[in-house]
Amino acid sequence: MKMPSSTVSGTTLLRQYGLYHSTRLHADRALESMAAGWDAVQARLRDRVAAFEEAQACTMTALAVRDGEEASLAGALRAFYGALVTKTNNDRKSPLFAVYFPEGLGALVDAPMEIEAQRALVLTSKLAEEKDTDLAAHRAPITEAVKRLLAAISVHKEEMAAQLQAYGRVEQEKVAWFDAYKLDHRTLSQMFYRNPKRAESYFKPAARTGKAPALRAVRAQGAPPASFGQAVTP
């Protein structure tokens, strides 16, 4: 038996190797007990893979939220910068620019987002003492944007940690899957010791065929296309 590589994904193990082995076992009524045991192995790995995919989706969602909040903070900072431009008639040498943007706007909005958030908090602390009401009015939206961004950064880190843990559980379950696969091979080899080829016949990757040629063949036989999709989709 040629074992699948340990680097193969859990999904591939389930849909190709595991599916073929399960189908062959179920086709032999004398192997119902082994088939049931293998189904349990498949189910455990399937649950772990599903949990990882869910964790991965949560991480992607958290990433999108985090990036959106960073864009909101950058927008709030640009709005305040625009107010300074208006207030000073675009005099970049004005004391106001030296107070709030000594290194320019880019030092905030182009910085890594956690540094951007911290620098924005320093800016809001200065705005707390600003006497000009037009400029001081920007403190609240910037402060709120910083809070949302920091919260989103925290959630994203938590989701990444959860995804890493879920991935580790998949890898652990893959080890159990391989052990069960080897055990079934050993059992069948002993059972069919006079006919080794029969034992090997239970262990193959499910064939992957192109959909377009298969669809043409099915249609040529007059079968409805709807049935085709359920039969060959991996």
Folded structure, characterized:
The chain has helices at residues 10-26, 32-87, 95-100, 106-109, 113-127, 133-136, 139-191, 196-200, 211-220, 225-232. Helices cover 76% and strands 0% of the residues. The protein is built from 10 helices and no strands.
Look at the helices and sheets and give the structural class. mainly alpha
Using the alpha-carbon principal axes, give the shape. Answer: rod-shaped
β content, as a range?
under 5%
Poorly predicted runs are: 212-234
Number of helices: 10
Mean of pLDDT: 89
In short:
The protein has 234 residues and is mainly alpha-helical. It has helices spanning 10-26, 32-87, 95-100, 106-109, 113-127, 133-136, 139-191, 196-200, 211-220, 225-232.
Question: What is the element layout, followed by pairings?
Answer:
Blueprint lengths: L9 H17 L5 H56 L7 H6 L5 H4 L3 H15 L5 H4 L2 H53 L4 H5 L10 H10 L4 H8 L2
Helix pairs in contact: 1-2, 2-7, 5-7
